[in-house]
From TrEMBL:
Organism encoding this protein: Prunus yedoensis var. nudiflora
Membrane-related topology note: Multi-pass membrane protein
Disordered: annotated segments: 1-22
Location within or outside the cell: Membrane
Protein name (record): Protein NRT1/ PTR FAMILY 2.13
Keyword Lyase: no
Record keywords, A-Z: Membrane, Transmembrane, Transmembrane helix
InterPro entries: MFS_trans_sf, POT_fam
GO cellular component: membrane
């Protein structure tokens, strides 16, 4: 493959004035591209009901649990608004950073499917933990009471054990979110053959359905779920998203035999570093201007099943 042959010549003489050594046989490369396209068998839209439904339900569950969470901390845990906002900001920052970890784990070790499955279980554990704080009175401070003589409302602050139990639930939720968010969209794209015109059109349709479902989910969470939490009970308002998350996991696993599973191919950061090293070591080489370089620098994945799309070769920044 072009990338392997490119990096295998890193130790070549830097004083060379030609890039002939970098050019593989073009016919063999094109044959490899043709054979890789022939091997690809992807489910396409057959897998979308499982993926889109799982993604929609998962967002409805996690957003339904956290959209109104600051009000829950102020009312039930008797926190001031600054403390409640700090907890939510730390949690948001935590799962945002964990998305980098989740993406790296999927690319290097587990793959997208297994990462999403394990992260979904972690999310469910976090949601069950937080739901228990609404069901079990001992896991949160007692209700505030009014002093009959002074007519003042007295509220007991949360203990370290109660706060710790809540933080454990948020931590599991952050781990799960960090694994699901960076893998959900790429996993859906993996189900389509992006080397064909029809496959690329299907990818665009998938994006439309993905963001449409996200908008509908946000609308439901901002109306129905918040109404249940505020007007009915926090226990029901948390248990419904938790049950939905259980359904999302079952639905996602039900389509495991249909999905196209892409094997882990290493970290993107390593490839980026390799490009920088190769560019530095080959800075004196002159690239040919003729047709011998056409099609040479299109990389093929290690398993030969996916053709990675590249920008067209130009003469800029030589």
């Amino acid at each position: 493959m072009a990338r392997e042959k490119c990096f295998s010549n890193l130790s070549s003489d830097e004083s060379s004035e030609s890039s002939d050594a970098l050019l593989p046989e073009k016919d063999d490369h094109l044959d490899l591209l043709d054979s890789s396209s022939a091997i690809q068998t992807k489910p396409g839209w057959k897998a979308m009901p499982y993926i889109l439904a799982n993604e929609s339900i998962e967002k409805m569950a996690t957003y339904g649990l956290t959209t109104n969470f600051m009000v829950y901390l102020v009312r039930e845990y008797h926190m001031d608004q600054v403390s409640a906002a700090n907890i939510l900001n730390i949690w948001t920052c935590g799962y945002s950073l964990l998305t980098v970890v989740g993406a790296s784990v999927a690319d290097i070790y587990l793959g997208k499917f297994l990462t999403i499955a394990l992260a979904s279980l972690a999310t469910l554990v976090g949601m069950v933990t937080i739901t228990l704080t609404a069901f079990v009175p001992q896991l949160r401070p007692p209700p505030c009471f009014i002093d009959g003589q002074q007519h003042l409302e007295h509220c007991i602050s949360n203990t370290k054990t109660q706060l710790g139990f809540l933080v454990v639930g948020l931590s599991w939720l952050a781990i799960g979110t960090g694994g699901i968010r960076p893998c959900s969209i790429p996993f859906g794209i993996d189900q389509f053959d992006s080397t064909t015109v029809e496959g690329r059109k299907s990818v665009h349709s998938y994006f439309n359905w993905y963001y449409t479902s996200s908008t509908v989910v946000m609308l439901i969470n901002q109306t129905l779920v918040i109404y249940i939490q505020d007007s009915v009970s926090w226990a029901w308002g948390f248990s419904i998203p938790t049950l939905l998350m259980s359904c999302a996991i079952a639905l996602f696993l039900a389509g495991s035999r249909i999905y196209h599973h892409v094997k882990p191919e290493g970290s993107t950061y390593v490839s980026f570093a390799q490009v920088l090293v190769a560019a530095y070591k080959k800075r004196h080489l002159k690239l040919h201007d003729d047709e011998r370089v056409l099609g040479v620098f299109s990389d093929v994945s290690l398993d030969g099943n996916v053709v990675l799309s590249k920008l067209p070769l130009t003469a800029q920044l030589r």
